[in-house]
């Protein structure tokens, strides 16, 4: 281990490009000042506005919470302002893209692996994305330098078989793909989830690839951006990771379209701002990024967090930690804010988004154990805190609102003391500073909304309003986005607060979002199940404050209204029909919709093309693997060599086969189906026996006549 | 006039024919091959479906199209880090 650390220290010293580090330190110092100074002033104003006769401890708590929240939203504000500065100047001198020689073709004997880690995702979508990327690469003539790996951690037996079929179909496409290869590997045991999946690839095949480009199951990148990423890495041996800012595509529901629009309009400014102060100490977001394979394997293995607390064990949000480890090893981690051609998809409904957030919340809170870990750079420690605050701020906001309500309640119920104890020349009148209150309110609103206005202005000034549907529609879309996100903010706050509390208490809350029809969206019943508490809280809270303190009710009304309306908001924003209506009205348009890149067009075409049907294409994957001789042969070919099971396992497999023959495939659980799929001999025996079935038993397998 | 036995015999032959055809089509055989292989099975006069499929398996030729693509390249572990606890040192000491 000592040798290992010495190596790290040496690597840090030989870093040839020190200029960005100095600039980064200065920029971060300026950012810290811009956050801290206004926060202190705002906290002082806030403290002055609180009733002097109120409870002292409550005032202190409220001022403290306000200061943290004000500082937190200032980070986003100043990042956006920095982004506007960068974009208005036509770019940043330290843009990592500037180092890449874009004119000359790639040279040298090396290959890059494009990884698609998947977990029970729609295989048709995944392999259409794979093909869109491969075709894009083939057009550039560089396809031979890239191999694509679909790395499956899928646990659903039906999806597993469909993935194998999609893999063969994708490999049998007649397109000229010019040397690029496509592989499919499924792990039987998905240890350490996605990070374990990537690590498994690295251990087995990583040495053959100088770089890996990690995709998500819903990612898409153009060949141009992939090649640029490789060129950056070739030009900058000191760089370990380059992250691209993906833009949302293929949104159908109203919520997803709103998120897509917000990402397209505000995203570039925010990404440029992040680049401005992070420079080579940026973060890896887990997908749409290129990684230097050898450095990643040697330095970014994830340790287990010691202890037994809810925050111990395997690291869940691996990407932020991997970027910190990469930087710790001396390599730069950059955000290529100015690289186009990187795409992803948004969660379609609020519930889907919250389920994802629950996972992210656990992961980010776990990083509290890493803030003070050994060897990390200060920027990454700050970014860990930033990640924690992404969810922690919700709980703090909730506490702040509760404290404010309590303050309002106490100022109504408590008898004012005009003549305090001790000698006094004048009575102690309650003091109100409406002008200060308005200043504070407008300052907070400025921090929240001004970046959006600036981003829109950037689009107007650069003459790109047509890409967003024209000036009027752009303004209407911003209004719609602001309105919906304002009402959804308290709903997100409530859920994020719940996630933080349950994570710290070590409670497991499992949600199963099965009540969603792709076209109709979320059902009212499912929304009621998820949001009844929020609605109840919003109504009770709002009404109580209206009765007790109408003045405070006005302040609380956006929060109470958002919570009270969470059921209809969740249902309506999940509707594809409303998303389509917005599209017909020309609202929420994005450049990727107005002028879709070739890769996006091809993917859309591939997804709408009718799939070739055969006798068993309607049957679930497991049934197809048992019945169709072709699918069975394919499955056996990808299964690899298996050990002969012992007598006990063999007897269990035989009893499963008997059960399947007697009662059909639907009588088996997913675990039982996987056991059969994992044993070639029993599966082949089942296949033969099924074709010999007669009568109703044959019908259970879809075999008639 | 067809006897009862003949009637059932004809039914089972028809079932065998349809089911072997369905099997062979799913396997990717051409219509001509499907018909020829099914006729070969029927020529053996199997008494039930299970026997028919045992016969079919005996006469199925190897299919060139079932050479499925290689699902993974050869393993190359030369970058492998043997220390399974790599980076565990970050928790050893408190250090900023």
Descriptive notes:
The complex is a heterodimer of chains A (705) and B (96). Chain A has 705 residues and is of the alpha/beta class. Chain A has three domains: 1-100 and 236-412 and 437-612, no CATH class; 109-221, Alpha-Beta Complex (Spore Coat Polysaccharide Biosynthesis Protein SpsA, Chain A); 621-700, no CATH class. Helix content of chain A is 61%, strand content 7%. In chain A, the strands form three sheets. A seven-stranded mixed sheet of chain A has the order 3-2-1-4-8-6-9, with helices on both faces. In chain A, strands 5-10-7 form a three-stranded mixed sheet. Chain A is globular and about 105 Å long. Chain A starts with a helix and ends in a 5-residue tail after the last helix. The model of chain A is unreliable at 1-15 (pLDDT under 50). Chain B is mostly helical. Chain B has a domain at 1-58. Chain B is 50% helix and 0% strand. Chain B contains three helices and no strands. Chain B has helices at residues 4-27, 31-43, 49-59. In chain B, α1 (4-27) packs across α3 and α2 (31-43) packs across α3. The radius of gyration of chain B is 28 Å and the shape is elongated. Chain B starts with a helix and ends in a 37-residue tail after the last helix. The model of chain B has no long low-confidence stretch (mean pLDDT 77).
